[in-house]
Design goal:
By secondary structure, the chain is mainly alpha-helical. Helix content is 63%, strand content 0%.
């Protein structure tokens, strides 16, 4: 029962991070659309550097973590109902609280003997991403928990998260003194592991928390993508439930799996990425996505392979966290590594955005023209570096997913499929005699 509570606590924690980060970046981006220069609101990205405060903390206690949990869930409850400027500020504060809270939680996990933390967090991350997909599907592409009456779901999440913390808080000591046995690893190793972990989260945030994005990349059926993706994930769950050893594979095999996934992801994007010429006379460009039937088959094959291989991201979460647990880092090491990893998170997000607004970014903007696939490729390289820094996996007594968790994930999968089948987006608007419809064109995004 305790493991189930821990899994769902980390699942909701990861889900709220995805939601707050999405709203924070969207609000900043909205202000950017109001002009043709970098908006002053971009200064709020300084909140990404909140983990630097961890350098001042030797051993975080329950009161500090309880305060951050409260700030996090209060931010999630309030921000959907606010206007754009206040939503940006409140969601940014929530993101900042999360970036402080997670390293504190993991520091305690790393210093507990016989901790099952890596497995718990891995399963929690899968649960959080699945719920994010559920909300997006039932909102026809938009997170239903931030819209209208759907905000009740957000309040329910917040209350559940705070109740789970109340139940779980006793697991976290009021500080844990460093002992002679707990000799930490080098900062470089800890940094590589943390960078790899955040890079995995970036890929989940960019692509799999809202799979309809992949449909927009490729022009393929969103329902088909969901089917392949969720079946692959559930088969992965079944394999670890039966203790097939996927979590303990040799490092070279894990690197090969990641490389295969990364190449498939890169080609899925690259083959569908339109090339925007420098000369204005070259426009309009052709909307035909493929030059031949072979190119279309290659695009389908790379997409299918990317979806089938995507469970490697959950194995990465397990192995990276396990190595961080073995490293037993000092709080200052964890804080420094997570600060740099948060900078990487910010740069990855900015790189993603710059591929759209490159003409309005001075000096470096032109380098991001037609570089959408390269941004993802760079993130995958960071994941590979993190995996290179991992240790040999430890033998643990119980690695099977709890049966109750398997039932919950099966129900989530069924409900997602039902939503994808019933809620097909319909762009046709009924004609009305007393209304005039305007189509606006945003010059900055044109």
């Amino acid at each position: 029962m305790r493991n189930m509570r821990s899994i769902f606590f980390y699942g909701l924690l990861f889900l709220v991070f995805i939601q707050l980060l999405t709203d924070f970046i969207a609000a900043i981006y909205a202000f950017g659309l109001l002009g043709t220069s970098i908006p002053p609101e971009l200064a709020t990205v300084v909140l990404f550097f909140s983990p630097i405060m961890l350098l001042l903390i030797r051993s975080p206690g329950r009161p500090t973590m309880s305060f951050l949990v409260g700030v996090l869930w209060l931010s999630r409850m309030l921000e959907p109902a606010l206007d754009t400027r206040w939503r940006m500020m409140v969601s940014g504060i929530g993101v900042s609280a999360w970036l402080l809270l997670f390293p504190m939680l993991w520091w305690h996990e790393a210093h507990q003997r016989k901790s099952n933390g890596p497995r718990v967090v891995m399963l929690g991350v899968m649960f959080g991403v699945a719920v994010s997909i559920l909300f997006r599907v039932w909102g026809s592409g938009v997170d239903i928990s931030v819209l209208g009456w759907g905000q009740v779901l957000g309040w329910g999440m917040a209350m559940s998260g705070m109740w789970l913390w109340y139940q779980e808080r006793e697991r976290y000591l009021n500080g844990h003194p460093q002992t002679i046995e707990d000799k930490p690893s080098s900062f470089v190793v800890i940094l590589a592991l943390m960078m790899g972990l955040v890079a995995v989260w970036v890929l989940m945030y960019f692509s799999f928390s809202a799979p309809y994005v992949i449909s927009r990349w490729t022009g393929m059926s969103g329902q088909m993508i969901l089917w392949v993706l969720l079946v692959a994930w559930f088969m992965f769950l079944l394999s670890i439930h039966r203790k097939t050893g996927l979590l303990y594979m040799r490092k070279v095999l894990l690197l090969a799996w990641n490389a295969g996934f990364g190449l498939a992801l890169y080609w899925t994007i690259a083959i569908n990425q339109p090339h925007f010429p420098l000369s204005p006379t070259a426009y309009p460009i052709s909307a035909v996505p493929y030059d031949s039937i072979w190119q279309m088959l290659w695009a389908l094959a790379s997409l299918a392979l990317m979806l089938i291989l995507s469970p490697v991201l959950f194995v990465d979460v397990y192995r990276l966290l396990e190595s961080l647990e073995v490293a037993r880092p000092r709080m200052s090491q964890l804080g420094g590594a997570f600060t740099i990893a948060s900078l990487f998170l910010l740069l990855a997000i900015l790189g993603h955005v710059f591929t759209t607004v490159y003409d309005y970014i001075p000096v470096i903007g032109p380098f991001f023209r037609n570089a959408f696939a390269e941004v993802y490729g760079f993130v995958v390289v960071v994941v590979l570096v993190g995996i290179l820094a991992t240790w040999r996996p430890l033998a643990r007594s119980s690695q099977a997913a709890p049966r109750g968790y398997m039932v919950v994930m099966l129900l989530l999968t069924v409900v997602i499929f039902l939503g994808a089948s019933w809620l097909t987006p319909n762009s046709t608007m009924p004609a009305r005699q007393d209304h005039v419809t305007f189509l606006t064109y945003n010059i900055q995004q044109g």
